[in-house]
Write a structure and sequence with these properties.
Number of helices: 14
Strand content: 25-35%
Radius of gyration: 22 Å
Low-confidence stretches: none
Number of strands: 22
Largest sheet: 6 strands, parallel
CATH topology of the largest domain: Rossmann fold
Shape: globular
Number of domains: 2
CATH architecture of the largest domain: 3-Layer(aba) Sandwich
Length: 421
């Protein structure tokens, strides 16, 4: 078997002939309706009425809350049917704002933003959330621990807020999309950090990573539970949720009240993206190409999924271009001293979310032998406990010699996770 594995904006060819490979892939339909048709069904025949056009009648300020470029949501195909239903309801384009829920991610440049949304109707305003821009934030309530919660005023002041997002596993918040689009999607920086700090369990000595902060886990997950509670402070009246197929394009969609549609989307993700396989002594994983492997922060999610199918001390071949580098200056202090004890201590005193990303990565490099084909500097890769690998073919040749009858796990497409009982 010869495969072209996604890598950056291109591919790396992997000659897997002579190796017994078990490809870990989602159990998704081979053929899905066109994205526009999925969205039209979602907005016209929602799980619970009213339909979007009916709900939007009389609205003076409509905000469409959408994910940023780190999430594959096919917005150029999704937005036109939504905007068309608003037009049918008599909503003028000048009354519509598309608000990109960046969370703490950096804003996109002008050309990247245009590619993210696709063409929008003249008059429609497109904004990107900046978690550090206090002037754009409005206090709406408090977190469970008492800290104030501020959200972007374009979401708070809309008389119709519509959430549009893909739903997928999230490596510590259970699932992405849904309420996460509101909080932390359009929240202030301080409250985002306060929420994500819950991933560190301070009730133990020394502190530890909270055991319920896992993909697919919502109940008992302190991060996910606070996201759900806080999002209700600015609850969308309509949601269009999507689940991707094997090619990354939406293959399922539903519309209606967020509290009704989100559990359906999570169930669909579980059914499609949780599989029974392994454990494996050797695994090849591609982080999925751009934008999923643009930074180490994003690429790490594929590695996290793959290692869940690995035996202890397994060898993992990790392919991630990381042309955008680590992904955040806030990660740099943790990359400088990437020891578990040092990171946990620092996070317990002053939580920084990308310190937690570094922690998760170091936990894996301590358990598994990870070779990384990446554009990151070799010195950084080695410091993080991985072996820089320029020649993918050489690794596969060695595996053929060392264990010609062994089974290799392979993730060449979307990340999948072990099925939960």
């Amino acid at each position: 078997m010869i495969l072209r594995l996604p890598y950056g904006r291109g591919f790396i060819t992997a000659d897997l002939r002579g190796l017994h490979c078990h490809e870990l892939r989602p159990e998704v339909p081979h053929h899905a309706p066109p994205v526009a048709a999925l969205v039209e069904t979602a907005v016209d025949r929602p799980v619970e009425r009213p339909a979007l056009a009916e709900l939007a009648r009389g609205a003076q300020r409509v905000t469409l809350l959408v994910p940023d470029a780190t999430r594959k949501s096919a917005l150029p195909e999704v937005l036109p049917p939504v905007l068309d239903r608003l037009r049918q309801a008599g909503v003028e384009p000048s009354a519509v704002t598309v608000l990109v829920a960046c969370g703490t991610h950096p804003a996109a440049d002008e050309s990247s933003l245009a590619a993210l949304t696709g063409p929008v109707l003249p008059g429609v305003r497109v904004l990107q959330h900046d978690a550090r821009d206090d002037s754009a934030l409005v206090e709406v309530g408090k977190l469970t621990t008492g800290e104030p919660v501020r959200l972007h005023r374009a979401a708070v002041e809309a008389d119709l807020l519509v959430a549009i997002s893909s739903v997928q596993h999230h490596y510590f918040a259970g699932f992405g999309g849904g309420g996460k689009l509101i909080f932390p999607g359009v929240a202030g920086y301080a409250e985002i950090q306060a929420n994500h700090r819950k991933v560190i369990d301070l009730s133990t000595d020394p502190p530890r990573r909270h055991p319920a902060c896992e993909p697919g886990v919502l109940v008992g997950n302190p991060v996910a539970e606070e996201i759900a509670a806080t999002a209700r402070l600015c609850w969308p009246r309509f949601a269009v949720l999507l689940v991707a197929g094997a090619d990354g394009k939406p293959a399922w969609s539903a519309g209606g009240p967020l509290e009704v549609v989100y559990p359906l989307a999570c169930d669909r993700v579980r059914r499609w993206f949780e599989v029974e396989a392994g454990p494996f002594d050797r695994i090849v994983v591609s982080a999925g190409g751009f934008p999923s492997d643009h930074t180490l922060i994003q690429a790490h999610k594929a590695l996290d999924a793959a290692c869940r199918f690995a035996t202890d001390d397994a060898e993992v071949l990790f392919l991630a271009a990381c042309d955008g580098g680590p992904g955040s200056p806030a990660m740099e202090p943790f990359l400088a001293d990437p020891r578990v004890s040092a990171i946990v201590t620092q996070l317990a005193e002053d939580y920084v979310q990308y310190g937690h990303t570094t922690l998760r990565l170091i936990e894996k490099t301590g358990r598994f032998r990870i070779s990384a084909k990446t554009g990151l500097p070799g010195e950084l890769v080695a410091r993080l406990g991985m072996r820089p690998e320029a020649d993918v073919a050489a690794v596969l040749d060695r595996w053929r010699e060392e264990d010609p009858h062994g089974t290799i796990g392979l993730i060449a497409g979307p990340a999948v996770y072990p099925r939960r009982t």
